[in-house]
Amino acid sequence: MGLSSPDDAAVWRLDDTRSLVVTIDFFTPVVDDPYDYGEIAAANALSDLYAMGAHPILTLNVAAMPGSLPADIVSEIFRGGATKVREAGAVVAGGHTIQDDEPKYGLVAVGLIETEKLLTKAGALAGDVLVLTKPLGTGVTTTALKNGTAQEEDITQAVAWMKRLNDGALTLALTAGVKSATDVTGFSLLGHAMEMADASGVGLRLYLPSIPFLGGARRYAEAGNFPGGSVENKMYLRDRVQFEETIDEYNQLLLFDAQTSGGLLIAVPEKNLGTFLEQAVSNETPVWLIGSVEEGQGIRVKDRPFEGETPEFEDLGKLWFSS
Predict the structure, then answer these.
(1) Same structural domain, 209 and 71
(2) Does residue 314 have a pLDDT over 90?
(3) Separation in Å, CA 13 to CA 10, 22, 116, 180, 245
(4) How does DSSP classify residue 162?
(5) Beta bridge partner(s), residue 65
(6) How confident is the model at residue 4 (pLDDT cuts 50, 70, 90)?
């Protein structure tokens, strides 16, 4: 699996049962603290492996740093990345650094998978339930930080979610026999969802009131704190997404918001949804049921809650959303 498909990582078959999964991701700072930046960048790169069903084993640092940047700041960025890699059960085995005018950091990440458990964007089937594992809004929140208008508690919440690994979400997916997933990053929820719809030959229906957002996201949206990528996402996809008339421009743009280290979007077979939710509650892994897979093409966004949410799910969503 490589250039011919829109998936999150390359896959190389090793033998009859195992495959290597390989990806790379890096970006400029989205927060002020260098250690947090390192952790976020590493979690973001590792997310591509989890989205494919793989467990990380090996990483390489990829960095571009200004020569004038103090060594202790560079060290903190690398330390943050190494901490997150170690949390994932993998190792940093080296890397490559050059000088550049603006800091850039990330990872080459390598994982292992049992080939039969591979997750792709092409495996969603009509009737599957769409689950999201992190709230949206990191794009508008970090842009507000850059603009000097973000509140400290909102940044704290955003950083905590961006640093969170998607390993727990992967465990749930594998337990429930999931075949299709992707991670939500710079192409936005709607962008990555559209990739899933196209690859699977299906349509998707999303329910706006059931989609979680970070505290302050709507306020930052109304103040115009959208990164350039969010506007580009909407321009690219606007003709393929149908919004219910009652959904205003700000909520539409929030669904196009370019995310950093977002959650997994998982298509859960309806017959396995009970097992998936029970395991989520048992493992204290946050999940939100946000939509469904249907026959057809494109995406329709409704202005009503998703039907069929269980009390356990609602309690879990409130727990993680409030924290």
Answers:
(1) no
(2) no
(3) 10, 11, 11, 19, 47
(4) H
(5) 99
(6) confident
3-state DSSP call for residue 290? Answer: strand
**Residues β-bridged to residue 213:** 136
List beta partners, residue 20: 12, 112
Which of 117, 147, 171 delimits the end of a domain? Answer: 117
User: Considering 93, 117, 141, which residue would you say is the last residue of a domain?
Assistant: 117
Strands 241-243 and 299-302: parallel
Report if pTM > 0.85: yes
Same domain, 39 and 112: yes
Query: Hunting for tokens 């059960």 — which residue is that?
Result: 89
Reported as a single tens digit per residue, the pLDDT across 41-65 is: 999 999 999 999 999 999 999 999 9
Answer whether 166's CB lies under 8 Å from 266's CB: no
Q: What is the mean pLDDT of the chain?
A: 94
- The answer to whether residue 3 sits within a structural domain is no
Gap between the Cα atoms of 27 and 236, Å rounded: 22
